[in-house]
UniProtKB/TrEMBL annotation:
It comes from Streptomyces violaceoruber. Residues 152-199 form the DNA-binding phage zinc finger domain. Residues 188-231 are annotated as: Disordered. It comes from the Bacteria. This is DNA-binding phage zinc finger domain-containing protein. Residues 204-214 have a biased composition (Basic and acidic residues). InterPro entries: Phage_Znf_bind_put.
Length: 231
């Protein structure tokens, strides 16, 4: 939240609670307290608190924001399938990103069954034989390392939604009602672009490119058939 937005929140509170007094430095103090939060969340919190009482403190706004974020996380039933190529730190970072997205309202409310997916789950591949030295070594190596982000080149297709089957972040792709072992190529490409700091492909442009490739392949095949038929 910026200083200007903090002034807006103070004015919002003054309008909702006419009897509440404000000093010259009230917006400055409120701005420092509310700095970590979005102005839209603060506005919603002001309205919610004002419905219950005639005075509002910045601490009560923060408490209301946190309560609403916890509620959104609970209703989203966040599930992360994981990526076998991730380290322990990367997997934890991906799950934290999903939880943050749920708190921000970017993940819809859903039942546990919907979060887990209704398609049949594939059998797990054979596990690594004991004593699991590779996984333990990877986990130990990840301890104390900086949390990787997409801009650092972490390609994690399950951290984003799929534009082919509409699978939500943290959920595996499916084809004709069955869970896929791998993700759709388009989802992998979107993850690679995100890791490289590039914007996602426009779906219409992607479909147009696929149509051009199919048309070129069909034309090449037709030309090949015509050449073979020529005596």
């Amino acid at each position: 939240m910026t200083e200007e937005e903090a002034v807006q929140i103070a004015e919002y509170v003054a309008a909702a609670c006419p009897a509440q007094k404000f000093g010259e430095f009230t917006p400055d103090v409120w701005g420092e307290i509310l700095k970590p939060y979005a102005v839209d969340e603060a506005r919603s919190a002001v309205i919610a608190v004002a419905r219950r009482q005639p005075w509002i403190s910045p601490a009560e706004i923060v408490e209301e924001i946190k309560a609403r974020r916890e509620e959104r996380i609970e209703l989203a039933h966040v599930v992360y399938d994981g990526n076998p190529l991730e380290t322990g730190a990367q997997s934890a970072a991906s799950r934290r990103a999903l939880i943050a997205a749920a708190a921000d309202g970017l993940l819809p409310a859903r039942t546990p069954a919907a979060a887990l997916g209704t398609a049949d789950r594939l059998a797990l591949p054979p596990g690594e034989p004991g004593p699991y030295t590779n996984r333990i070594a990877a986990a130990r190596a990840a301890v104390g390392q900086a949390t990787p982000t997409a801009r650092e080149g972490v390609v994690n297709p399950r951290a984003i939604s799929c534009r082919v089957c509409q699978a939500l972040p943290g959920v595996s792709c499916d084809a004709r009602g069955r869970r896929m072992r791998d993700v759709h190529p388009a989802r992998l490409e979107d993850a690679r672009r995100q890791a490289a700091g590039l914007p996602p492909l426009d779906p219409d442009d992607a479909r147009a490119a696929e149509d051009r490739i199919r048309a070129a392949s069909a034309a090449a095949l037709a030309q090949h058939d015509t050449t073979e038929e020529t005596p």
